[in-house]
Design goal:
The chain has 564 residues and is an alpha+beta fold. 15% of the residues lie in helices and 30% in strands. A hairpin with a 6-residue loop joins strand 9 (337-344) and strand 10 (351-358). The relative contact order is 0.09.
Length: 564
C-alpha cells in the first residue's frame, strides 16, 4: 500500500500569506537570478536550486516575489514541474474561469486529470485565489496516496494536540491527520499548524524541498519511493507524533498596494482642480501577526477619507484598506506626479511601500478674449453717425497655468490695459467706448477687435461686429423772407423783398459740389462740401414788378443739387 511505503517521509508545509497574483507566472526563458531575491533571504539557496532545475522560473519582469502569496494556478504549475508531470492530459477544460489559452490552462487540466485538485461547486477553478496550508496538505496527500488512510480508533483525535486542530475543515481533516501521522507536517513552537494561513511562494519551495529530502521521485515513470524506513512504532498501531518546532524562522512582512479608483473627466489625464481617489491596501503577507502598523501617504495635500492609519494588530493574511483623496494643483500640471504610501511596524520589523503614478494634463497656457456691445442704438437696430457704442472686453484664463504680464489692447478705441497675473479660471473685464464716424457709415460695416498678449507667447483676440446705418445722402433747402413790406402786410409795386436760403445736410454722409439756384432772383451759389448736420445760408433780393401785382401772388423757389 502506498501509504505504508511512505511512512518514513517527513516534514511539510510552511506558513502562508495572502495576495492574489493576477499576472502570468512564467517567462519564456529561465533567468539566472531574480532581481528581488536577496542572498540573505531565508529560502534563497532552495529557490535558486529549484530555478536551476526549472521547477520555478519567475515573472516576466525578472522577479520571483518570494514573500507573495502563491495562487492556485502557480501552485499547480510548480507541483507539476516538481513531480515531472508532462502535461499530456487530453481532457477538456471545464472551468468557466480558465481560458484555454491561459498560461496555466494545461497545468490545471493535468492536475485535475491526475486527481490531486478539483474546482468549486460553481464550476470555477479560481486560478488567482490564494492557497492555504490546509489545501496544500490535501493536494500533496492525494499525490502521495495517503489522503484517505484510515487509522485505529485511538487516532480519531490525532490532531487534538495542535492548538488550532479544531479549525481544520471536515473535508480536509482525514488528509491532514494522515500527514500528521506520517510526520509530514509538524507544528510550530506555539503548537499550532497555522492550517488556515495562505502559503507564500518561498514557503511552497521549502515545502517541496523538504518532501524531496524524504522521497525519491522518478520523474519519467512518476513513481515515488521513501528514502528511509519509517520511524516510530510498527504493526497496525500508528502513533501520533508530538508536535515539534519547525525550523522556519519568523517572517514579518507587509505588502502595500495602491490603486486609483477614480476616473479623470477627460477619461485619460487629470486636470487642474480634479480629485483623485486612491485605495491603499495593506496586507500582512508574513507568517506572524504584526502590531502597530503605521501607514503614511507621502503625497503632500492628500486627505484620508476612510480607514485608520494606525492599525493596532494585523493578523497573518489579513488586510486593511484606506481611501485617500487628492486635488490636482497648478504645481502638478505638466509634472510627473507619483503618490507613495508606506506601511511600517513598530520597531521597524518590516516596511513596504506602494507607488502609483497619477496621469496629469500637460501644461496648457491659454486665454480667451470675448468682446460684446453693452449699449443699445437709439433706433433700436443700427448705430447712427455720432452715436456712442459701449464695449465690454472679457479676458478669461481657460488654460491650466497662471498667466502673467498680459496686455489688452483695443485698436479701435485706443484702449490699453495691463493684467499682472491671471490664475486659471480667473476673469478680468474692461469697458471702452467709440463714436460712430462718417467713415464707418460709408464702409457700411464696423468690426471691433480686442487683443490680449501674455507671457509665454500666449495670445488671443475677440471681435464684435457693430451694426451701423446705411448711407443716407440727403439735404434740406429752406427759404424765408427776412424783409418787411412798407404797408406791414403786402409788398407794393417797386418794393424790394429780401430772401434767406438755408441749405442743411440732414443725411449721414458729406455732400460735395452743391449748386444752389434761385430762378426768381437769378441767384446762384456753390457749396464745395457740406458735412452731415452742416448748414450754409445765402441772401438774395427781388423787386416787385407790375406783373406780380396783376397776378396777385408770387412764389419763389430755390433749388440745391449736389453729388451723391
Amino acid at each position: 500500500m502506498k501509504s505504508k511505503a511512505l511512512k518514513a517521509i517527513q516534514y511539510l508545509l510552511i506558513a502562508i500569506m495572502t495576495i492574489v497574483i493576477s499576472v502570468s507566472f512564467v517567462s519564456a526563458v529561465a533567468p539566472k537570478s531574480f532581481s528581488d531575491l536577496s542572498s540573505k533571504h531565508w529560502c534563497y539557496e532552495k529557490i535558486m536550486d529549484f530555478l536551476d532545475r526549472e521547477f520555478v522560473i519567475g515573472y516576466e519582469d525578472g522577479t520571483f516575489r518570494p514573500d507573495n502569496t502563491i495562487t492556485r494556478a502557480e501552485f499547480v504549475r510548480i507541483v507539476n514541474n516538481f513531480f515531472g508531470y508532462k502535461l499530456t492530459a487530453t481532457a477538456n477544460n471545464t472551468f468557466s474561469d480558465v481560458n484555454d489559452d491561459a498560461w496555466f490552462a494545461k497545468d490545471v487540466v493535468e492536475a485535475v486529470s491526475r486527481g490531486y485538485i478539483t474546482g468549486y461547486p460553481d464550476g470555477t477553478f479560481r486560478p488567482y485565489a490564494p492557497i492555504r496550508r490546509q489545501e496544500a496538505t490535501v493536494i500533496l496527500a492525494r499525490i502521495l496516496g495517503i489522503d484517505k488512510d484510515v487509522y485505529p480508533e485511538d487516532h480519531k483525535d490525532g490532531l487534538a494536540q495542535y492548538t488550532d486542530g479544531k479549525q481544520i475543515e471536515e473535508w480536509a481533516y482525514q488528509a491532514v491527520h494522515s500527514y500528521s501521522v506520517h510526520n509530514f507536517i509538524n507544528g510550530y513552537e506555539d503548537h499550532s499548524l497555522r492550517i488556515l494561513q495562505n502559503v507564500t511562494r518561498a514557503e511552497t519551495v521549502e515545502l517541496l524541498n523538504r518532501l524531496e529530502e524524504n522521497i525519491v521521485i522518478d520523474r519519467e515513470s512518476g513513481d515515488i519511493k521513501p528514502t528511509k524506513k519509517p520511524s516510530g512504532g510498527g504493526g497496525g498501531s500508528k502513533t501520533t507524533p508530538k508536535p515539534t518546532a519547525t525550523p522556519v524562522p519568523d517572517n514579518p512582512s507587509l505588502d502595500v498596494s495602491k490603486e486609483i479608483t477614480s476616473t479623470p473627466a477627460s477619461g485619460d489625464k487629470y486636470g487642474l482642480g480634479e480629485t483623485v481617489t486612491f485605495l491603499v491596501t495593506v496586507t500582512n503577507n508574513g507568517n506572524i501577526a504584526l502590531e502597530n502598523v503605521q501607514i503614511v501617504d507621502q503625497l503632500e495635500g492628500v486627505v484620508l477619507v476612510s480607514g485608520d492609519e494606525l492599525i493596532k494588530e494585523l493578523k497573518v493574511g489579513e488586510n486593511a484598506s484606506l481611501v485617500y483623496e487628492y486635488t490636482i494643483t497648478e504645481a502638478d500640471i505638466g509634472q510627473e506626479l507619483k503618490n507613495v504610501a508606506v506601511a511600517s511596524t513598530s520597531g521597524d520589523k518590516t516596511t513596504d511601500s506602494g507607488e502609483k503614478e497619477i496621469p496629469v494634463e500637460d501644461l496648457n497656457p491659454h486665454m480667451t478674449v470675448e468682446k460684446e456691445i453693452t449699449s443699445t442704438p437709439e433706433s433700436g437696430d443700427t448705430y447712427a453717425l455720432g452715436e456712442t457704442v459701449t464695449f465690454k472686453i472679457t479676458v478669461t484664463n481657460d488654460g491650466n497655468v497662471t498667466l502673467t504680464d498680459i496686455t489688452v489692447t483695443d485698436e479701435l478705441t485706443s484702449g490699453e490695459w495691463t493684467i499682472e497675473s491671471l490664475a486659471p479660471d480667473a476673469v478680468e473685464t474692461f469697458e471702452t467706448t467709440y463714436v460712430i464716424t462718417e467713415a464707418d457709415i460709408i464702409a457700411g460695416e464696423l468690426v471691433n477687435v480686442a487683443v490680449a498678449n501674455g507671457s509665454g507667447d500666449v495670445e488671443n483676440s475677440g471681435d464684435v461686429p457693430v451694426p451701423v446705418d446705411e448711407q443716407n445722402p440727403h439735404m434740406e433747402v429752406e427759404k424765408e423772407i427776412t424783409s418787411t413790406p412798407a404797408s406791414g402786410d403786402t409788398y407794393a409795386l417797386g418794393e424790394t423783398v429780401t430772401f434767406k436760403i438755408t441749405v442743411t445736410n440732414d443725411g449721414n454722409v458729406t455732400l460735395t459740389g452743391i449748386t444752389v439756384t434761385d430762378e426768381l432772383t437769378s441767384g446762384e451759389w456753390t457749396i464745395e462740401s457740406l458735412a452731415p448736420d452742416a448748414v450754409e445760408t445765402f441772401e438774395t433780393t427781388y423787386v416787385i414788378p407790375e406783373a406780380d401785382t396783376i397776378a396777385g401772388e408770387l412764389v419763389n423757389v430755390a433749388v440745391a443739387n449736389g453729388s451723391g
